[in-house]
Amino acid sequence: EDDDNDDEGTKNQSLEQTQSSLAASIQNQHTISGHVDHNSIELNINDDDREEMNLVTVAHQQNPTYAQNHSTDSDESKNNHYGDADNGDNDDDHDDVVQWNRGGDQPSIPIEVVDVAHVSVVGRQGFGNFINGVYEQQVGYIHDGQPVFKRTYTTGMGFQKPITREIFMFYQADNSAWVVAHFVGSESIIAYVPSPPQRPESTYTNTWEVSNHSGSFQQDPSVRVVLCDVKLSPFRRSLQSGREINFFQYRLSESEMEDICAELRSRDCRIERLKLFRNDLSSSNIRFLANALRQNSSVTHLQIRDNGVSDEVIDPLKQMLISNATLRMFSLRNNAISNDGAKWLAEAIRQNKTLVGLSLRNNRIGNQGIEFFGDALKINTSLRGLALYDNEYNVKSAKKLLRQTAKYSGCQIELQPPTL
What we know:
Layout (H helix, E strand, L loop, with lengths): L5 H20 L29 H8 L1 H7 L4 H4 L18 E4 L8 E4 L6 E4 L10 E11 L2 E10 L7 E10 L4 E5 L7 E6 L13 E4 L5 E4 L3 E4 L6 H5 L5 E3 L7 H12 L7 E3 L7 H11 L7 E3 L10 H10 L5 E3 L7 H13 L5 E3 L7 H10 L8 E3 L7 H11 L6 E3 L6
Parallel strand pairs: 12-13, 13-14, 14-15, 15-16, 16-17, 17-18
Antiparallel strand pairs: 1-2, 3-4, 3-11, 4-5, 5-6, 6-7, 7-8, 8-9, 9-10
């Protein structure tokens, strides 16, 4: 390692020493069989739908407490804080031990019988994302007192011949870490996380280190291990892959929307930013989504842009905004909301105490519609940014709204060009 990578070099050297000793002890271990995991899929996460309105800057300037309490660790997430911003028996008598013999003169090795509980690695983006997926617990196989898990996947694109590969997750007692590697005890470690001797899904609060292009390890706080429910669909499991889920022109099917809503209702939901840009969502899908979000406690940024949302489905969205206490930024940009829809949304704003930014630009809201929001802001004290430009009101009504709200509200209202 270079001089400026002494810390990484020390960490790698420690791992290599442990790996070498473990490799010598497992030279004669049997090969673990398994099947190809056809259920692992990846999402194409892109972030190209940036909103011109700087709601988050306004929120941070006017409400420093919000900036302190809701900032995240990564630079990427700091650019995505606004509505349109674009993972039984404990005795030692061995009653539950069977003998496994490798044949020949090899001695028998006691293997503890364990209950099967597969796990999934989720959250890795970019280089090394092949560690994401389902790891099947290998029945009766223990390493350093903990179960061994295996993931089988295929590589190869286009005209290349697909290649089946295997990676393993196992515990290294000497390093007190769960490790992902190409072989159990091998030197080809791909990722690891410090942990006491407990199951891998118990490492949720610890930070994984993943090998980069140069072979050194870097922290990735998005990676985690979760229990895998094999009864869930592949799409549903993919929703657990990261904090941001971005379906850009994905044309979600009815079954996929059902999975999204089921995940949002789950107590274990970890989705923080949900972007559903241009998916032609039906009215029933919008209703299901709004109902699922009423009690959700993880999503802070929601984007339902370019989906033809009309006044017909505003009432469930209103009820969601009244009930939900987690959502901070909400974008309904480029839809078909008119004065009637604006009235119901304004009523929700009167009762909501946590929303910070709302974008309704490029809808069909007229003079009466923007007045509803002016009245709502006499009561609401949390909203810091409201985008209403590119709607159907006139300049006179816009100027009137700005003069009135300046007297009693700290919310910055964006109404067409700054020259107003």
